[in-house]
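Please decode residue identities from the backbone states below.
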């Protein structure tokens, strides 16, 4: 059911009225006088309109906007939209029994400063803006973080030109107070146990628990009236078939006795984003390929080996930043991660395997091309995943004091890597509205590339702007 121009205008008027009522603190809603999208205002001479939720029945819950995915991008987007368009009754649907169960709760926990990204690119702008917004948010909401800084260290002469390029990029990206450290003495003043030829120092890079930030966005969303439903896995979108009202999208859920009807849907489903987009006719590409990143854990008594983050100079052929030393908010130090193709999208262990997902991935020409182009790299990463000593050897380039006996196997995260059919890694944001009659009501965030945790509030602003244009929310104000 496509919405016609006059319907949108009338819907806007309805919402405007709704907004005014809320702003004035007059909760003058009647449960029996819900006004639909068209002819709504005319049909209701009392001026009373009902909220979406007042239509709830045993079989259906009603919302103006539904966010699918309780990771940091979905939660930041829901929270941001709620602040800008408080009259929208919104909810977040998350399939797991907790928020931030996947990428947002299993990552390095770094607040990136925006050094790596192509100057002028969206990724660069969103990261630099995201860093500023993340610190402001954490300060305002008592979320603890540490600005422990970061060194990107060149240990080999052939890395020096790449380090110089990164310096130039960082300056063009306005990374605050970025400084080139010209010799080992300078490096050791910042990190006494680190060795190297030259380094870049970013004092404003920090660490935070991104799962805690996600939960905080969720809490603020709920405080503003939003609802969060855990254990709510979305399995389908279809037309509600309602002719007298404007909740055209019906969402089916796994293991829930009711369905959800809504005006608008925004999906931010990370590792499942291609599959969820396909539920409303999204394009088959890009596909998501899962890369597992395994960490090592530095033993407690050795955690003073590093003060802040120590990173290698990344290899530009790969999207990952390379194994690094990262202090955690609880005092631990994580080393890694490597990047190994996973045989299951949400498979956190080496032998996690899904025949269905593996067969789908193996049948994808893009993946076959990627593997073919990077066979030696892939085997190297797998080898380092199995043999800890190989990973420790890599890390000893930076901190020679590190010994095999200082580390144990640590946790793992799985990255949603979007892959094009030609085998190239998709580095851009990808939005999709699907096809068919519901496409004017859907916005799928198909790819929100890393560091999407750092950039979450900036991405959320972009998603909200896009939704308000696509769904004409601006005229509600
Ligand atoms: C190993 C690793 C290290 C990283 N390090 C950093 C870092 O240091 N700093 C940084 O800024 N970024 C880092 N990142 C990137 C960052 O973690 C991600 O970009 C970000 O968390 C993505 O958030 P998201 O909300 O898009 O995805 P997710 O956190 O994966 O959230 C998607 C959610 O959607 C839910 N979902 C999926 N399908 C459905 C469905 N059908 N119904 C309902 N719910 C559904 C999932 O359960 C999940 O909770 C790292 C990533 C990885 C993997």
């Amino acid at each position: 059911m496509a919405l016609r121009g006059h319907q949108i205008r009338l819907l806007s008027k309805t919402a405007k009225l709704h907004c005014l009522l809320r702003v004035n603190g007059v909760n003058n809603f009647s449960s029996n006088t819900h006004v639909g999208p068209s002819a709504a205002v005319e049909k209701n001479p009392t001026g009373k309109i009902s909220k979406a939720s007042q239509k709830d029945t045993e079989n259906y819950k009603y919302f103006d906007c539904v966010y699918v995915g309780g990771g940091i991008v979905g939660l930041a987007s829901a929270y941001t939209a709620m602040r800008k368009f408080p009259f929208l009754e919104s909810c977040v649907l998350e399939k797991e029994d907790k928020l931030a169960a996947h990428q947002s709760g299993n990552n390095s926990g770094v607040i990136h400063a925006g050094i790596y990204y192509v100057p002028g690119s969206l990724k660069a702008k969103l990261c630099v803006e995201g860093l500023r917004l993340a610190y402001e948010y954490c300060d305002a909401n008592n979320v603890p973080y540490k600005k422990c800084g970061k060194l990107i260290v060149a240990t080999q002469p052939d890395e020096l030109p790449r380090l110089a390029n990164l310096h130039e990029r960082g300056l063009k990206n306005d990374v605050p107070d970025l400084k080139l450290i010209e010799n080992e003495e300078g490096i050791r003043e910042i990190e006494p146990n680190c060795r190297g030829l030259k380094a870049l120092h970013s004092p404003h890079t920090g660490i935070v628990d991104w799962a805690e930030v996600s939960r905080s966005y969720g809490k603020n969303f709920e405080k503003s009236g939003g609802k969060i439903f855990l254990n709510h896995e979305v399995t389908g979108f279809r037309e509600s078939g309602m002719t007298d009202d404007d909740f055209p999208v019906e969402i089916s859920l796994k293991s829930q006795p009711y369905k959800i009807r809504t005006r608008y849907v925004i999906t931010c489903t990370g590792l499942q984003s291609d599959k969820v987009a396909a539920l409303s006719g999204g394009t088959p590409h890009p596909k998501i390929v899962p890369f597992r990143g395994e960490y090592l854990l530095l033993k407690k008594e050795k955690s003073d080996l590093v003060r802040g983050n120590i990173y290698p100079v990344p290899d530009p052929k790969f999207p990952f930043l390379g194994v690094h030393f990262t202090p955690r908010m609880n005092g631990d130090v994580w080393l890694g991660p490597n990047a190994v193709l996973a045989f299951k999208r949400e498979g956190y262990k080496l032998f996690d395997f899904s025949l269905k997902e593996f067969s789908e991935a193996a049948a994808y020409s893009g993946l076959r091309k990627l593997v073919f182009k990077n066979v030696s790299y892939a085997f190297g990463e797998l080898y380092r995943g199995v043999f800890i000593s190989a990973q420790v050897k890599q890390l000893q380039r930076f901190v020679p004091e590190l010994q095999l006996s200082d580390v144990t196997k640590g946790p793992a995260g799985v990255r949603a890597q979007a892959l094009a059919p030609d085998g190239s890694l998709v580095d851009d944001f990808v939005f999709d509205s699907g096809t068919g009659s519901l496409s004017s009501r859907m916005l799928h965030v198909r790819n929100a590339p890393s560091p999407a945790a750092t950039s979450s509030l900036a991405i959320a602003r972009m998603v909200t702007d896009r939704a308000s244009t696509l769904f004409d929310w601006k005229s509600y104000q």
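Observation: The radius of gyration is 24 Å.
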